[in-house]
Amino acid sequence: MIVEKFLQWSKHAKAIDRARAANALGRAYIQSNMSEDEARAAEAAMIFLLDDPSPLVRLGLAEAICFSPRIPRAVIMGLAGDQLDIAGLVVSCSPVLKDADLVDFVADSRPGLQLAVAMRRNLSSSVCAAVAEVGCSLAVSELLQNRHARIASVSFDRIWDRYEDDADVRSSLIDRDDLPCDVRHALIFKVGSALAGSRFVSSVVGTGRVTAVTASACERAIFTLTDNVRESEIPALVEHLRIRGDLSPAFLMHVLCKGNIEFFAAAIAGISGMARARVRAILVDGRRASIASLFNSCGIQRSIGEVFVQSTLLWRDAAMGKSEMSPDQIMNRHMQIMRRQQGDKPVAELFQLVERMNLEYQRRSAKEYALSIAAA
User: Fold this and answer.
1) How many CB atoms sit inside 10 A of residue 99's CB?
2) Minimal CA–CA distance to 338: which of 348, 327, 353?
3) Which Pfam families does this one have (predicted)?
4) Cα separation of 301 and 228, whole Å?
5) Which range (6-10, 83-87, 208-212) has the least confidence?
6) Angle between helical axes of 73-80 and 36-49 (0-180°, round to 10)
7) What is the predicted pLDDT for the residue at 216?
8) Quick check: 141 and 114 in contact, CB under 8 A?
């Protein structure tokens, strides 16, 4: 009876009045204690409203019911297939929708629907994977800004593959604390390249210096990355650096000088092809000849390898309590070892590169320390 009266009234009512009635009907269904017959009649009325010729009516209904988990699936799916302003409201909010529904909406390829999906709270990794795989750049940027989205590492990789040249996506990636280290490393160089090609940056620092400045900034960012990488991600970052050809003797020596032994061991393992546990055992307990053989297996020149051996033993003594030097003193000793052997050209070149890296590292550390004191 209710539905029949509603149908009769709706034939002659204005669109704005029908929209108000649709909104009231939706709110009544959610908030009132309807009997079974009344609820069935209300559901039938809502389904009838899905075919109302005025989008105002359908929008009024969507606004009333979009957050409720009690709404019949037929109503929600009908609204989700409506025009974008109506569908987007339901798709971004309704708890009735399942992961399979959301994946289908992403595959629909309408940017507005993809954006609505990316905005949802508590997105599962499967839905995030769908957005990463086929989502437009706007939806992907929104997904990356969604702190409630469970984005898997493989999805970050896919986003990078698709949108590494998109400045907005890169900006959103930078802000992610859970970004995989290999993607962050690639991002560092991409941003550096973009800055190097910027007219604004060139005008500020000078065309002749822009390459050196951006390269130095990228280098500092990489060292920060290696300092803070989670242990579980070290192998992935090492492999990424190895493929790029970034595991140079100077880079490795700088890592060793700073005492980042876990990363250093993983890097040597990646280059030599030996198991990480075996490499670590040699570095910690191996004889001098074993350590030298290990570095030789990495293709490191004999004279440079000898410097690595001495520096490794220096850190080993410190770790075992055989010396009471501070990290800064140990780093200075590393530099003295290389300085004494500068008669050898490869060692001299290594010394120059490592000294530059270490001076930059000390400068940055001092600045961070000063800022922390000022903020205290």
Assistant:
1) 13
2) 348
3) DUF2336
4) 30
5) 208-212
6) 10
7) 59
8) no
